[in-house]
Design brief:
The structure holds two protein chains of two kinds.
Chain A: E1 11-22, E2 25-31, E3 43-49, E4 55-61, E5 71-76, H1 84-90, E6 96-103, E7 117-122, H2 126-138, E8 145-151, H3 160-169, E9 173-179, H4 196-202, E10 211-216, H5 218-230, E11 238-242
Parallel strand pairs in A: 7-8, 7-10, 8-9, 10-11
Antiparallel strand pairs in A: 1-2, 1-6, 2-5, 3-4, 3-6
Chain B: E1 4-7, H1 12-18, E2 27-30, E3 36-38, E4 43-46, E5 50-54, E6 61-67, E7 75-78, E8 82-86
Antiparallel strand pairs in B: 1-4, 2-3, 2-8, 4-5, 5-6, 6-7
The chains are: A alpha/beta, B mainly beta.
């Protein structure tokens, strides 16, 4: 903990690109002049200020690898949200966005920490886990990874193409998808919410001491964390990031 | 008011407003039940006015932070739920 004292300060990032991911999600790419670099899994706080001075703050996970100079955030549009409709609908290239970070060294992973890595995501919970698989690739790591990813439908799988390419090109990363509401014809993946039976089939056995990162809506995170511990995994190696009931 | 039950990691922003080191990986021991674990692994209850960090074993309030909403930047920090903090 030695080192220089630094305060977490708000700064302005510039939106350099926005890119639709799915009908309800969008990637924002930001250039942040004072960015001091992040670790895969960390987040930023975003702050919006209304004309009357009212401020709303939300946390967004960073989806880009530390090796990438830009900061990519995945924004899911929640219709009754205070922040996400602005980020998803109003923000344009060249706009400034007030943020601070990177924040949170607990839900973070560096390739040197090893694995195997068990990643479990629901919906836009893929973002910090995407930073981990991208970091792993950029670092030239061959640590085995299994990513179990739950989406409502095929069209709502965020980073679908990139994940397919990663899994096809690299024998040490396995991507297992489950679609909970609608499955396309001929779908061979899982077709239900993540449960203990699925985790028993997908997760590395506890004897291999995997490091697990779980991110998504609160019910998914709690189900997965509880099931992993019941299956015999070390609770201190199961790290969770809940979105919570509201957000937006 | 909306209150969200989240991971301790979600409180990292407001904690870093006060502590200038990475506190989510520090270990905190609970005064009430004695359980010790990383701050990021405890439960955070986050509202607009402040944050309560509760022990993931017994729900005792480990850290309470209230942030003044208007005027000068001012915090109230209550750490009496923590027996000790182990920093690395």
């Amino acid at each position: 903990m030695a080192g220089t004292v630094r305060r977490l300060t708000w700064q302005i990032g510039e939106v350099v690109e926005t890119s639709p991911q799915t009908p309800r999600t969008k990637s924002l790419f930001l250039e942040v002049p004072e960015w001091r670099g992040h670790r895969a899994g960390q987040h930023v706080d975003v702050r919006l200020t209304a004309e009357d001075g009212y401020q709303a703050e939300r946390s967004y996970s960073i989806a880009s690898a530390p090796e990438n100079g830009q900061v990519e955030l995945v924004v899911e549009r929640l219709d009754d949200g205070e922040v996400s409709p602005y980020l998803a609908d109003e923000l344009r290239d060249g706009d400034g966005l007030e943020l601070r970070g990177p924040i949170g060294g607990w839900f973070a992973w560096d390739a040197e920490e090893g694995g195997p890595l068990l990643l479990v995501a629901g919906g836009s919970g893929i973002a910090p886990l995407m930073a981990m698989v991208r970091h792993r690739k950029a670092a030239g790591s061959d640590i085995p990874v299994r990513l179990l990813y739950s989406s409502r439908s095929y069209g709502e799988i965020i980073f679908r193409q990139e994940l397919e390419t990663l899994a096809a090109d690299d024998g040490t990363i396995e991507v297992i998808q489950t679609l909970t509401r609608f499955q396309p014809e001929g779908w061979h993946g899982y077709d239900r919410r993540i449960d203990e039976k699925m985790l028993r089939e997908v997760a590395y056995p506890p004897e291999e001491h995997p490091l697990a990162f779980v991110c998504g809506p609160t019910p998914l995170v709690e189900t997965v964390a509880t099931a992993l511990v019941e299956l015999g995994h070390d609770p201190t190696r199961v790290k969770t990031e809940r979105f919570g009931p509201t957000g937006g | 008011m909306d209150e969200q039950r989240l991971d301790g990691n979600a409180a990292a922003g407001i904690l870093e407003e006060i502590f200038t080191f990475e506190i989510t990986t520090a270990r905190a021991a609970c005064v009430h039940c004695g359980a010790a674990g990383e701050v990021g692994a405890q439960m955070a209850y986050v509202t607009e006015i402040g944050t309560v960090l509760r022990c993931s074993s017994c729900d005792n309030a480990l850290i309470r932070i209230v942030r003044q909403q208007t005027g000068p930047q001012r915090y109230w920090l209550d750490l009496k739920g923590i027996d000790y903090l182990q920093l690395q």
